[in-house]
Amino acid sequence: MTVVCVPDSNARKLLGALPDGVEVIVWDGEDKKPENLADTVFWVPQVEDSTNLAEKFAAMPKLKVTQLTSAGVEDILGHVPDGVLLCTARGVHGSAVAELVLTVILATLRRLPHFGEAQRQGRWDPVEADDLRDKRVLIIGAGDLGEQTARRLRGFDAEPVLVAHTARDGIHATSELPSLLPEADVVVLTVPLTPETTGLVDAEFLSRMPDGALLVNVARGKVVDTAALLAELTAGRLYAALDVMEPEPLPAGHPLWEAPNLIITPHAAGSIAKSGARAFALVNAQVRRYVAGEDLINIVEGVD
User: Is residue 93 flagged as an active site residue?
Assistant: First the structure.
């Protein structure tokens, strides 16, 4: 019997039918443990679960696979016991997040916040806007999300430039950022949160961006120095669109709420109606691979 543990009854429903010989149990990670939890070999934790991980892993001594329903791994990386594979949901949420990136870029360039405010005030206030054609968009993070964003940008005749920690064919290294930033009309952050990317976007980074450039963050809030970004926004030199920020949730009264040239969305890039179904379709496929003795996909072997 292959025991698979999922976090709640809705996850069990989304998981759907599985091969004979697979038993699915539900555990939210709290004190009340289901029967056969100790026999679990395949675990799907809560989204971005980072609490009491040592105790949770200890409750599943036979565990072989931890399958995330998100692409981010920073909450769990380093806590997974030796011998347990960690797999992400790479490819599941990239299209939705890339769509939001495109949406906020177009909204900023076409001055939609300005027109929205004019509409609320009952003012007819035409202003000159801009478009994506020939814009140079620096995408820092060359994983699935970065690639999906680049593909959509090419459809608007923009020029995406991908950047990763290490250079490879068609992709620049982060060490090249000082020379790349001054030529960027838009900078999109899609990097994972690591010690190297924490605080990557600091005052010096922002100072290299040209006047009027746009920063889009769909990575993690801690990638950006909030105070440094606020200084640039308040000065009116840069634009920004933040789906993630530090702190998060953003408290009432925080100066970001009143910052000019800024679009805020509440960590909503992947929050679409079909995200759960898509994530658990991947989980279902992974369980089937595991039972059949096939190689799993999206195994975390490094972060770039």
Answer: no
